[in-house]
User: Fold these one by one.
Assistant:
Number 1:
Amino acid sequence: MKLIASTMAIRISSLSCILILFFLFSNGLFAQNNKLIDLQRWEKRLEEKEKRLNRKEQELLKKEKENKLILEAIEKENRRLKKQKQELVEIGNNIKTLKEQVEDLENKNLDKLANIYNSAKARDAARVISNMDVDTAVKLFKRLSPMAAGEIMSELGKTDPKFASEVSERLAVMSDNKSSN
């Protein structure tokens, strides 16, 4: 009986060990299964985040490409404007040169006219000068000899007093400006 009791005790203890191992093993599998489920959830979350990041990356690449195109357009426009500015500077220089040439030619012509009117009859000169614009008449009077200018102005006062007055006022202003400088 002792043998039977001992065999039974061994069987019970083997069975207990098996049951204990079974519970331990099944708890471990359950825990591993839970871990596996958690890992799968994390993997799914990571995949979703990766997809969002990829979409964001594509959006950023698209915006970067758009910005690059805009920058290229701006640079192209800047080059065009710079070229246009250079052309305008050249045109301005040409205009300045032409203006100087015109002024020089005008001065030569006025000098020639002054020589003509210095020797012309005052009445004839006054008739022609009264048809000029005031600025030209003033420039011409500045070149006339004082004697001829006085005689012509006297005749202008008789034929066109308003014009003579305007020319005289401008000549006076010019004289005042020269004496104050």
Number 2:
Amino acid sequence: MGACAVRYLSWIITLPLTVVVASFAITNRHPVSLGLWPFPATVEVPLFVVALVPLLIGLIVGGLVDWLAQGRHRRNERRLDARVRSLQDEVRKTRVKSSAEAREAARQAEAARVSGAKSAASEAARRELDDRLALPASGSAGASGDGR
């Protein structure tokens, strides 16, 4: 049931109830004497006050009792909300840390690739140099070996 449906249902119940209470108050305006027992005084009030004030007091007391009874649940919800916020912060920090670590790993891989390419190039240049230096020596040895 959506919030809109609850709002309409609330109005459907509240408006007729308000009309009934107003009608009751209008038709029962006759004065009634209330004796306040431990005290010798009496008070004259309209009949609707005698009927509606205890209902109002009961509504307030019932709401207060219900609110106090729900305090444990509200406290638990606040604790759980704080825990959720804490875990969300932890996830956010972990994501930032892991993305930083991923960037660092990518940087290191690129550096290794570049240095690997450099070392491979320097190894190839060293071999070529060795081959150049070795060819004349082996060529002269080969020529002397062929002449025998």
Number 3:
Amino acid sequence: MADGDLGQGTGLPEEPIAAPSDAAREAAAASPTAPAAATAPAAEATVAEAAGDKRRSKGLLIGGIAVVVVLIIGVIGVVIATRDDGGGDGGDRGAVGNVAQGIYVTNYMGKPISPDIPARPEVAGLFLRYAWSDLQPTATTWDWSLLDGDFAAAKANGKGVILAIGAGDATPAWVFKAGGGTAQGVDFTIVAGGGAAANCNPMTIPLPWDPAYQATLEIMIKGVKAHLVSTGYLAQVVQVKITGINQSTVELRLPTGDGTVRAKSGCPESNAIATWQSMGYKPSVLVAAYQKIALLWKYHFNTQQLATPVIPSDSFPDLDDNSQPIKRDLALDQIVRWSIANLGPNFGVNYAALRDSVGTPLDVYKPLGAKIGYQASEKETSQPLCPGIVVEKSHPTTTCDPAYFQRVAANGVAHFASWIEIFENTLRAYGPQVASANQAVINNPNA
């Protein structure tokens, strides 16, 4: 699927799928394979709806006004189910705002933000990425040292935080059956860069629609939220990425190779298409799995903006609901449209390939109500600190080029950017230009 050609989704649910009940969230089904019927999951009662049921039963005891009472309670139930301060474990709207606005500097997953970055006045905040396996090394232990260090620096400098916790190959080994857990793992060998990499990258990722995996993922989500509340760091969080269906980054994607690419060393990639066919992959099953996972994030991070990072092409296997090959994936556009309709008015979608060219594949979602974000490529903007080598064809410069970064930022502003993520070296290379871009994004009339 080419960039900018996401297609028109069909078959989206007309009503939001309810957040899972406590009992449902604790249950893990014995079989992780895809359901035979390719349908969205049955709606399960939210906490608010359960309360509404009790109130309705009382209303039925009241003679002539029973119907009126039921109708009123139904309306209240809907309001409660969608209000921002739900979630059952308390909310904190945060001192630095409720949505991401401006320029955010990112770390590399598994590494701390550099000490000089949080105090930089040119940016609005930090985009902090962590591997699930680093935060929860065993089923019963947590390691908050990396997260706490970054958040303490953010808080001390008044910086907002975009938070992302990678799953995919960053899922702890103990989650899987092979490591003593209950979730089904799927093994792949990935070749990066279309064969440009020297070696293959073996990985085990979770089966997204496995109920045991979803239950374990929620334990992580709940644990992270509880820690942020107890430390007071939740106030810094302006956005949380919806993760859980990942490969080796926090972007929404699954392996899609057909086994024809080989690394420079000669090792072949996996035939992911054949693997997914054997696992019962269907676009409708994947969409339903995403919906369940997204609602877990919404339930627990009920006062923060939610956003899904996407790769507009080659995100998912090109298979239909009969597991037969098709020309392009059907799931991504359905996922984004469902998210816009069901994850709150500030739901964001972001694309990690902002360049200086005109147009982006996210333009189609702005009229639907999505907040739009981007990530500028470090390779194209600073190549760390512009060491005098040619980068990509779109920008064959041999030196640091402030004008190029300005064009990149201007392209984001023109295409509805509410926030833009950059790397540390981009900030170091173009401090004044980043400061100007930060204000332009914050005040973007197109956002």
